[in-house]
Amino acid sequence: MDSSVCQAYEDEIQALEEEIRLLTEKYEDIQQESTFFSDEEILKSLKSFQRETQGETRGHESPSDLKAQLESLETDLSFLMKFTGFQFTSHSKKTVEKTRNRTVQKHRLSGKCHSLSFQLEFQLLETEDKEKVSTVVTDLSIIMESREDSDVSKFVSRTEEHGNLLAFFRSLSTYAEWYEHRRRTFLHFK
């Protein structure tokens, strides 16, 4: 082979490697900045996707299969919301620091549990040692509707200190459910 031909191939390989690197970075940026969208935005995106993929479904799932999957996921989500009482209204995630074996992500989450609104802000520290991955919640901040109940504010303070999200969601679910029962009972007697 001629050296100029080899050089042309090497230049093309380098250009393709650079393009792959740029696309990988773009993909990671998109994955890091996730948010929940309204039903209207999801439907618009789905319709746009269907228009783009008409005729390009060879070897891929058909739009009707994707629509069935989406409907199944929406049914599952609806069931979980009714079962737990949680309805998440927004979520955002941003990567603050990323190294070979350590990742720090900042999350913001807001929603309602029955009739009680809440907002969470926390950092998720993920470390990887050989074959073990550990995840720790740090800098937890919980904002809830102002309630006169001092036990709730004590609970929120303890949860923020310990960074135990699972305990927070379990306790909030039970408290919010009984809060609704108490509220309806008192309304009945007024």
TrEMBL record:
<protein>
    <submittedName>
        <fullName>CENPP protein</fullName>
    </submittedName>
</protein>
<keyword id="KW-0175">Coiled coil</keyword>
<dbReference type="GO" id="GO:0005634">
    <property type="term" value="C:nucleus"/>
</dbReference>
<feature type="coiled-coil region">
    <location>
        <begin position="6"/>
        <end position="33"/>
    </location>
</feature>
<dbReference type="GO" id="GO:0000775">
    <property type="term" value="C:chromosome, centromeric region"/>
</dbReference>
<dbReference type="InterPro" id="IPR027801">
    <property type="entry name" value="CENP-P"/>
</dbReference>
<dbReference type="Pfam" id="PF13096">
    <property type="entry name" value="CENP-P"/>
</dbReference>
<dbReference type="GO" id="GO:0034080">
    <property type="term" value="P:CENP-A containing chromatin assembly"/>
</dbReference>
